[in-house]
Design goal:
This protein has five helices and seven strands, in the order E-E-H-E-E-H-H-E-H-E-E-H. The chain is of the alpha/beta class and 146 residues long.
Length: 146
Amino acid sequence: MNILFFLKPKSTVAYLYDDHTVRQGLEKMYAHGYTAIPVITREGKYVGTVSEGDFLWYILLKNTQEQNLISLEDSYIRDILRDKRDKAVKINETVDSLLLRVMDQNFVPVVDDREVFIGIITRRDIIKYFYDKEKSTKDLPDKKAK
C-alpha cells in the first residue's frame, strides 16, 4: 500500500517556519493544541520537528539570564531545533516501516524527492490501519471449521 493514502497534506497541517520567533512558535502550538510541530524553511524544505519540551528547555535556560517573555521575540525556531530526531520519510516508504517510526513519534513528516515538506502521517492513522488489518483477518471464517 502506498503511504500517500495516509497523508495529511501540508495545506491541512500546522507547521512553523525556521525563521519564526520562539514566541510565534509557542502561540501556534497553543492555538492548535499540538505537542510537536514540523519546521520548514521558507523554500518548503523540512528541517525538523520542535516539541513542547524543546520550548520548555529553551525558555528555562534563557530565563536564567532574562526574566521576560519579550526576550523570546529575539530568538528563532531554528535556534531551538535539536538534531533531526524526527526524520522525514520519502513517499516510497513502506507502511510497515512507518509503524516502527510512530512508536517513537506522534507523526511522521513526509517529503518529496527534493526534500520539500508535503505533509504528515499521524500515529493514529497508522495504528488504525494495522488494527483494521488485524481485525479483518480475524473476521475471516476458519477454513478448518467446514
